[in-house]
Each structure stands twice: as structure tokens, then as C-alpha cells.
Write a structure and sequence with these properties.
single chain, 12 strands, 6-stranded antiparallel beta barrel
Length: 204
């Protein structure tokens, strides 16, 4: 489990295309400290498994399903990525509960700079809009953010200077894809309410 608090801005140093997958080599001095084979590291919000680790770099395999359902397929050598290690049991939950399981992708639609922050508008797939609410939580490229405004096909977030300086949202431009993970609690609530409604119908 992750919290959506990005630990560092890493970089893709090599990409190896396989038959039905892809292997990335990534540089991240912070997240590789103490890393070992089998550990999990979130890359732009996607939970990946460390295959090899040497120095400040690690490799991770990405299967076709993940490439198709996320924006990782658009990464190339030199691409910057958000990196986060799993949260330790008993540590502070600085963001919100993030699984590292991408629900879909959005697109940066616009950026509105201000003196102390920046408003970013992101497209929202129709099948995810019911989970996104004003002042609710959403994960964008692995970053835990608070929704400012929510519409059927887009939402906005307000980014502070720290987020702009230390994550990919400081460099992404309109047209760039981003990974989206909605609040898992909302999905569980929907499932339970649906089951309850079905049960009530059955008893009538």
C-alpha cells in the first residue's frame, strides 16, 4: 500500500521491449536505498516489482495489460517519473490509501498559473466520474491530490510549489497522459450498497 506522497522524481535510463511486456531500468537514489529483489515501488502510481537492483538504479518488468491500461507505455529513456516505496505499518498516512492499481488514464487539458499555486485541469474517463467528488481524494501519476472541482468529464486540482517542483505534474503539459486511481473506499461503498439493494429486491 502507498500513500501518494512522492519520495523522489526518478528517471528512465533504459527501455527493453519484450514480446508481450517491457523492462524498464530506472534511477532513483532514495527508493533504491535498501531495495532488494521482489520489493514494490510505485512508478507514476503503478505498483511495480523490483527485478534487479544495482547502485541507484533498479529494473522492473511491465506486462502488456499494465502498458495498455496505464500511461507507462509512453515512457522513454529520459522520461521523469514519480517514485514511492510502500508505506511502513504504523507510519503516518500522509496522503490517502493508494493501491498502485491504475483505474484509467486522463489527459492534462490545461494549466492556470497563479502567484502561489497552479490549477491543473485533467480529463476524466466516463466510467470513473462517479467516484470523483469535490474535496475528495484522487491519485494522479501516483500523487495524492484533493479534487477542487469535479465534472462528468474532467476535474481540477490545485498544486502547491512543492508539488510542482518535486513531481511530474510540474513538467507535464496539455496533451500529456496521466495515470488515475480513484479512492478505493468509494468503490467498496458502491459495491456494498449495490449488494444491499440487490438483497432488498430479492426479499420483496
Amino acid at each position: 500500500m502507498f500513500t501518494g506522497i512522492v519520495e523522489e522524481l526518478g528517471e528512465i535510463t533504459a527501455v527493453e521491449t519484450l514480446d508481450d511486456a517491457c523492462r524498464f531500468r530506472l534511477r532513483g537514489p532514495v527508493v533504491t536505498e535498501g531495495a532488494k529483489h521482489g520489493d514494490s515501488i510505485a512508478v507514476n502510481g503503478v505498483c511495480l516489482t523490483v527485478v534487479e537492483h544495482q547502485g541507484d538504479e533498479f529494473t522492473a518488468d511491465v506486462m502488456a495489460e499494465t502498458l495498455n491500461r496505464s500511461s507507462l507505455g509512453a515512457l522513454a529513456v529520459g522520461s521523469r517519473v514519480n517514485l514511492e516505496r510502500p508505506t511502513a505499518v504504523g507510519s503516518r498516512l500522509g496522503g490517502h490509501i493508494v493501491q498502485g492499481h491504475v483505474d484509467g488514464t486522463g489527459e492534462i487539458l490545461g494549466r492556470e498559473p497563479s502567484q502561489h499555486w497552479e490549477i491543473v485541469t485533467i480529463s476524466l474517463p466516463a466510467d470513473l466520474s462517479r467516484y470523483v467528488v469535490e474535496k475528495g481524494s484522487i491519485t494522479v501519476d501516483g500523487i495524492s491530490l484533493t479534487v477542487v472541482d469535479a465534472a462528468d468529464d474532467h476535474f481540477t486540482v490545485s498544486l502547491i510549489p512543492t508539488t510542482l517542483a518535486l513531481t511530474t505534474l510540474g513538467i507535464k503539459q496539455p496533451g500529456d497522459p496521466v495515470n488515475l486511481e480513484v479512492d478505493v473506499i468509494a468503490k467498496y461503498v458502491e459495491r456494498m450498497l449495490g449488494a444491499r439493494a440487490t438483497g432488498e429486491e430479492a426479499t420483496r
